[in-house]
C-alpha cells in the first residue's frame, strides 16, 4: 500500500458507507432510511355486549324514538286476510247522485226518483244490513262480482313449478301477486263486521292444554270445498278463454285433491295434538310442521301457490300462543316460506327476534334452516315497504353472530354478500329528508354490528374484499356521518380488517377515504371509542403504503385535525392514585381516571400515525419543522412516566427518531437536540427494553451534533451504550454501534471509549452475530475503523489495540472474509442468496479495509 493511499485511508472515518464504488445520493438516502420504522400497536379492545338489545346501553339514540326490543305477540296479532285477492275489476268513480244496486231483471222506477240510502240509527241494524247486502251481492251472480282468475299460463306455472329453495326465493320477489279467493266463514264475517273477534288474546302458557283452533279446523280449509261457485266460475271462464283454461282448471282441481289427501289430515293432526296437551306435544307438533312443510314443498304449494293459503295461515297462527320457542321457530320458517307480507311479515320477524334474544335458544337456530329464510327476506324485501320487518330480521342476525358456531354458519351462507346487497338497497334512503331515513339508520346499526362480528373470522376477509363491502361502508359513513352508533360500528370493522394486507389495500384504494376519516375525526373529537379506532385504521394504512402517507398528509385539514386531537387528549393531569376505583362518570377525560386511560390510548394511536407519515421523504422534513408537533412530543416525554405510559413514550421516542433523521436547517428536532437528549435519559435508564432501544436509536441520530456528543460523555451515557453491546439482541447492538460510530469521530471521545473496553466488546459482537446478520457485522467494522483511527492530541493519545486484541480481531476477520466459511451456517437457497448479497455489500468492503489497517499497525 502506497504512502498516499495510507494517508487518504487514515483520514477517512466511517461517516459514509465504505463501498469503493461511489453511490449516488439517492442510494445513500434509500439505504439510510432503513433506520426509519413504522410502529405497531394493539388493536383497540371491542367490548362484548352481554345484553341482546337492538341498541346497547351506550347508544346515542334517544330511547323514546327507537324501536323496542321487548314486546308481546299473540296469535290474534296476526292478520289472516293477508292473501285475500282483489275483485279483479277496476271500479269507476261514483256519479254525483249514486244509485242503489238492483237485480238484473228489475228496472228502476221511471217516475219516482230513487232516494239516497240513510244510515240506520242502531249500530246493530247497520251490521245486519251489511250482512244482508253482502248476501245479495253474492247472489247477484254478476260477472263483475266474480273473484279474479289468474291467466292460464300463470296458473300452469304456479301448479307445475318446482319447489326448490332457489325458486321459492324467486317467488318471494313477486309478492304483489294475489292469491285465489277463499270464501270466508260466517264467523269471519261476524268478526269483520264487528271490528274483530270479541274474545281477548289468550294468556301465554307453557302448556298446550286448553288450546283450540277457532271452531275446529277452519271450514274454509275443509276437504270437499272449493268446487262449487269457484268451479262454476272456472267453467264459465274456460268457455270464454278456450281450451287452455281447461288445463289450468284441471291443475287447480288436482291441487284440491292433494289438499284433501295430504294437507288437511296434517292440519287435523295439529289440532288434535294441540288439544291433547301431552308432555311431548311440542316435539310432535314440530314433527307435524316438518311433514307439512315437506308436503307443501313436494306439491309446489309454498309461496302463494296454495289456494287455501289463508286458512292454512290461520291454523298455523293459532299455535303461536303455546309459547314454545322451538315450535314458534318451526312456525316462523313455514310462514316465511308461504311468503307472508305486511303486518304478518313484521310479526313473524319480531317473533324470531324475540326467540333470538335468549342465548339458550341459539342451539335451535343451529338445528333449523330459519337463517336461510331470514337471508331470503333481506335479499327480496323492499326496504321502503317492510323497513321495520327488515330491522328485526337484521337484529336477529346480529344476536346470532355473537355465537361462534352460528357466526361461522352465517359466513358459510354468504351473510357478508347479503349484508352488502342490503347496504346498496339502503343507499337511496340516505337523504335526511327521506321518510325512511330514520328506519334506514336503525337498520344500519344492526347491519354494521353484524359485519363487525363477521370481521373477526379470518375466512371473512376475502369476502369483504370481493363484495366491495369496505367501499360500501365508506359510502354509509358519508351518508350517516352524524350517527355515532353507525360510525363506531364501521370504525370497528375497519380497525379489525385493516390489520391485514388485502383488506388494507382495498380500503386504501377507496376514493376519498382519507378525507372521510379526517372529517369524522374533526366532527367526533370527543367520541373516544370512535376516534381511537379511526386513528388505528389510519396507522395501519400508513404503515403499509408510502402513497397512503402522502395522501393522508396532503388531505385538507389533516395536520390541524391531528394536532387538535393531540391538544384535546394531551391533558396535564396526574394519573389516578394507587388502589383508587375507577370512576363511573367517563364523559370528561380530564376529571375521571377512566378518561385518563382512554386519552392515553388515543395518544398512542395518534403518535403512531405521525411516526408512520414521517417516513415519507416529502412529509418527514415538514413534520420535523412543525413547532407545535415537536412541542407536544417533548411535553409528553417530560410529563409522562414509564410506569404509567410506557407504550406512549416508546412511540414518542420512535417518532422523534424518525424526525431526527432529517437534518435540514428548518428542523426543530435538530435545533432542540440537547433538550431531546436530556428527556430521553429516563427511557435509556428505564427497565423497558423497548424504551432503551428507541432512546438509543435517537441518540444515534442526535450524536452527529458535537453538543450532544459532549452531553453523552459528560453524563456517562457512553458507559451505558458500551454495556448494551453485551445484549443478546442484534437490534440493541446495532443501535449501540450507531452511537459509538459517531462518538469515535472525536479523538477525546475515542480515547474514552477505548478505556471502557469498547474494542473487546465490538470484537465479541462481531464473532457472535456475524454469520446471522452481516449488516450488523458491517456496522461493527465501521465502528472499529473509527476507533482505530490514528491521530489525537497530547492529552488524548491515539487509540490502539494491544497485541491480544489485535490477534483476536484478525482471526475473526480472516474467518469471515472467506466466503465458504462465512456462509456455511446459512441453510436454504433463498436465505443463502440473501446472506451472500448482504455479505458482499455490507460486510466485505469495510472488513477488508479494517483487516489491512490492523495488519499495517502490527507491522
TrEMBL record:
Record field: compositional bias (Basic and acidic residues): 19-34, 184-194
One record GO biological process: sperm axoneme assembly
Chain intervals for the UniProt region annotation (Disordered): 1-126, 144-235
InterPro entries: ARM-like, ARM-type_fold, Armadillo, ARMC2
Organism: Hucho hucho (huchen)
Protein name: Armadillo repeat containing 2
Amino acid at each position: 500500500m502506497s504512502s498516499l493511499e495510507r494517508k487518504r485511508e487514515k483520514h477517512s472515518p466511517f461517516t459514509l458507507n465504505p463501498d469503493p464504488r461511489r453511490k449516488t445520493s439517492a442510494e445513500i438516502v434509500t439505504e439510510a432510511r432503513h433506520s426509519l420504522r413504522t410502529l405497531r400497536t394493539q388493536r383497540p379492545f371491542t367490548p362484548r355486549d352481554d345484553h341482546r338489545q337492538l341498541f346497547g346501553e351506550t347508544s346515542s339514540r334517544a330511547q323514546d324514538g327507537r324501536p323496542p326490543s321487548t314486546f308481546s305477540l299473540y296469535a290474534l296479532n296476526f292478520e289472516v286476510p293477508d292473501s285475500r285477492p282483489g275483485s279483479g275489476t277496476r271500479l269507476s268513480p261514483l256519479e254525483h247522485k249514486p244509485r242503489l244496486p238492483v237485480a238484473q231483471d228489475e228496472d228502476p222506477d221511471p217516475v219516482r226518483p230513487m232516494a239516497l240510502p240513510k244510515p240506520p240509527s242502531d249500530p246493530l241494524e247497520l251490521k245486519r244490513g251489511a250482512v244482508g247486502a253482502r248476501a245479495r251481492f253474492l247472489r247477484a251472480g254478476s260477472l263483475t262480482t266474480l273473484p279474479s282468475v289468474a291467466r292460464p299460463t300463470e296458473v300452469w306455472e304456479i301448479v307445475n313449478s318446482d319447489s326448490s329453495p332457489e325458486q321459492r326465493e324467486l317467488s318471494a320477489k313477486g309478492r304483489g301477486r294475489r292469491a285465489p279467493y277463499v270464501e270466508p266463514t260466517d264467523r269471519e264475517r261476524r268478526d269483520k263486521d264487528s271490528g274483530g273477534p270479541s274474545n281477548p288474546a289468550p294468556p301465554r302458557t307453557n302448556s298446550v292444554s286448553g288450546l283450540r283452533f277457532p271452531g275446529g279446523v277452519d271450514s274454509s280449509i275443509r276437504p270437499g270445498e272449493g268446487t262449487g261457485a269457484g268451479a262454476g266460475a272456472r267453467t264459465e271462464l274456460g268457455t270464454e278463454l278456450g281450451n287452455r283454461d281447461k288445463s289450468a282448471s284441471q291443475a287447480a282441481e288436482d291441487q284440491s285433491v292433494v289438499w284433501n289427501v295430504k294437507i288437511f289430515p296434517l292440519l287435523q293432526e295439529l289440532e288434535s295434538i294441540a288439544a291433547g296437551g301431552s308432555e311431548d306435544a311440542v316435539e310432535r307438533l314440530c314433527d307435524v310442521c316438518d311433514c307439512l312443510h315437506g308436503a307443501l314443498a313436494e306439491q309446489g304449494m309454498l309461496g302463494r301457490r296454495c289456494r287455501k293459503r289463508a286458512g292454512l295461515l290461520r291454523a298455523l297462527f293459532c299455535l303461536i300462543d303455546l309459547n314454545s320457542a322451538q315450535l314458534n321457530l318451526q312456525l316462523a320458517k313455514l310462514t316465511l316460506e308461504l311468503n307472508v307480507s305486511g303486518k304478518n311479515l313484521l310479526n313473524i320477524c319480531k317473533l324470531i327476534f324475540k326467540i333470538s334474544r335468549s342465548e339458550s335458544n341459539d342451539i335451535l337456530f343451529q338445528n333449523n334452516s330459519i337463517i336461510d329464510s331470514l337471508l331470503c327476506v333481506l335479499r327480496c324485501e323492499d326496504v321502503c315497504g317492510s323497513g321495520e320487518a327488515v330491522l328485526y330480521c337484521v337484529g336477529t342476525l346480529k344476536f346470532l353472530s355473537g355465537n361462534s358456531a352460528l357466526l361461522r354458519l352465517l359466513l358459510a351462507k354468504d351473510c357478508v354478500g347479503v349484508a352488502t346487497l342490503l347496504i346498496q338497497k339502503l343507499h337511496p334512503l340516505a337523504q335526511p329528508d327521506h321518510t325512511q331515513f330514520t328506519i334506514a339508520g336503525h337498520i344500519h346499526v344492526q347491519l354494521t354490528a353484524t359485519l363487525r362480528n363477521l370481521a373477526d373470522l379470518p375466512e371473512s376477509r376475502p369476502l369483504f374484499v370481493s363484495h366491495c363491502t369496505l367501499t360500501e361502508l365508506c359510502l354509509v359513513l358519508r351518508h350517516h356521518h352524524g350517527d355515532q352508533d353507525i360510525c363506531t360500528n364501521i370504525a370497528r370493522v375497519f380497525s379489525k380488517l385493516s390489520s391485514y394486507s388485502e383488506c388494507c389495500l382495498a380500503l386504501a384504494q377507496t376514493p376519498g377515504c382519507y378525507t372521510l376519516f379526517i372529517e369524522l375525526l374533526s366532527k367526533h373529537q370527543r367520541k373516544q371509542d370512535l376516534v381511537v379506532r379511526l386513528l388505528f385504521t389510519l396507522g395501519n394504512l400508513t404503515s403499509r403504503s408510502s402513497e397512503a402517507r402522502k395522501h393522508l398528509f396532503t388531505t385538507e385539514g389533516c395536520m390541524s385535525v391531528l394536532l387538535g386531537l393531540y391538544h384535546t387528549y394531551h391533558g396535564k393531569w396526574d394519573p389516578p392514585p394507587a388502589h383508587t376505583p375507577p370512576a363511573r362518570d367517563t364523559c370528561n377525560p380530564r376529571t375521571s381516571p377512566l378518561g385518563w386511560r382512554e386519552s392515553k390510548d388515543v395518544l398512542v394511536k395518534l403518535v403512531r400515525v405521525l411516526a408512520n407519515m414521517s417516513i415519507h421523504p416529502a412529509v418527514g422534513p415538514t413534520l420535523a419543522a412543525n413547532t407545535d408537533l415537536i412541542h407536544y412530543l417533548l411535553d409528553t416525554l417530560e410529563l409522562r412516566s414509564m410506569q404509567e405510559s410506557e407504550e406512549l413514550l416508546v412511540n414518542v421516542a420512535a417518532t422523534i427518531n424518525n424526525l431526527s433523521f432529517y437534518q435540514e436547517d428548518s428542523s426543530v428536532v435538530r435545533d432542540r437536540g440537547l433538550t431531546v437528549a436530556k428527556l430521553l435519559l429516563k427511557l435509556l435508564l428505564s427497565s423497558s427494553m423497548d424504551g432503551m432501544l428507541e432512546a438509543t436509536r435517537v441518540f444515534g441520530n442526535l450524536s452527529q451534533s458535537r453538543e450532544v456528543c459532549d452531553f453523552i460523555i459528560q453524563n456517562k451515557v457512553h458507559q451505558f451504550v458500551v454495556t448494551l453491546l453485551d445484549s443478546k439482541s442484534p437490534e440493541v447492538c446495532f443501535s449501540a454501534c450507531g452511537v459509538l460510530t459517531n462518538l469515535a469521530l472525536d479523538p477525546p471521545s475515542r480515547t474514552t471509549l477505548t478505556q471502557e473496553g469498547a474494542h473487546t466488546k465490538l470484537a465479541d459482537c462481531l464473532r457472535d452475530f456475524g454469520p446471522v446478520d452481516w449488516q450488523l457485522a458491517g456496522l461493527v467494522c465501521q465502528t472499529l475503523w473509527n476507533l482505530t483511527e490514528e491521530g489525537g492530541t497530547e492529552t488524548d493519545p491515539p487509540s490502539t489495540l494491544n497485541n491480544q486484541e489485535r490477534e483476536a480481531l484478525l482471526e475473526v476477520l480472516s474467518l469471515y472474509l472467506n466466503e465458504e466459511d462465512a456462509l456455511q451456517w446459512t441453510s436454504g437457497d433463498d436465505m443463502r442468496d440473501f446472506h451472500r448479497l448482504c455479505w458482499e455489500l455490507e460486510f466485505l468492503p469495510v472488513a477488508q479495509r479494517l483487516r489491512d489497517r490492523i495488519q499495517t499497525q502490527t507491522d
